[in-house]
Amino acid sequence: MKRLTFSDLWSHPANLFSLGFGSGLMPRAPGTFGTLAAVPIYWFLLQGLALPWLVAVIGVSFVVGIWLCDVTAKKLGVHDHPGIVWDEFVGFWISCIALPQGWPWLLAAFVLFRFFDILKPWPIRWLDKRVPGGVGIMVDDVLAGLYTLIIIQLVAA
């Protein structure tokens, strides 16, 4: 598999986002580093939004992410290159919808999201292997985010 470089990051405008502003270039655990890069964006920019606005931002990020990830995957010649981490951004942000305040909840969302993204319980793995293009890249992380969201909300209730 192609090892990514900073020239890949700048070779197309979509790559800057889909490669997580460079976090996807990490040689080991790019998904974890991509999720880590999504944390400060949530903490400083998104958590203060009213729920409808947060959901709207995440929805737009998902739709745009389908295109971003598809462009980068085609450019790299790999369906879901590990360096493509915009899906981790969106999945993690889904995990944080209606997240209770405080860093322990943020940490719990991070850990649970990474758990589901790595483990890929049904139907995540099934969809990940069968859905092509940008939608296929995004869908597994969206479901991992939804699983995390459900657990966080059940625990917080």
In a few lines, what is going on in this structure?
This protein is 71% helix and 0% strand. The chain contains 8 helices and no strands.
Feature tags:
single chain, 157 residues, mainly alpha, 71% helix
SSE order and pairing:
Layout: H1 6-10, H2 13-18, H3 30-46, H4 51-76, H5 86-95, H6 103-119, H7 124-130, H8 133-156
Helix pairs in contact: 3-5, 4-5, 4-8, 5-6, 5-8, 6-8, 7-8
* Number of helices in the DSSP assignment: 8
Q: What structural category do the secondary elements indicate?
A: mainly alpha
Q: For the residues shown, what is the average pLDDT?
A: 95
- Report Rg: 15 Å
Along the chain, the helix and strand elements come as HHHHHHHH
**Could you describe the largest sheet, including whether it forms a barrel?**
none
- Parts with pLDDT < 50 across at least 5 consecutive residues: none
Helix content: over 70%
Please report the distance between the alpha carbons of the first and last residues: 44 Å
According to DSSP, the number of beta strands is: 0
Classify the beta-strand content into a percent band. Answer: under 5%
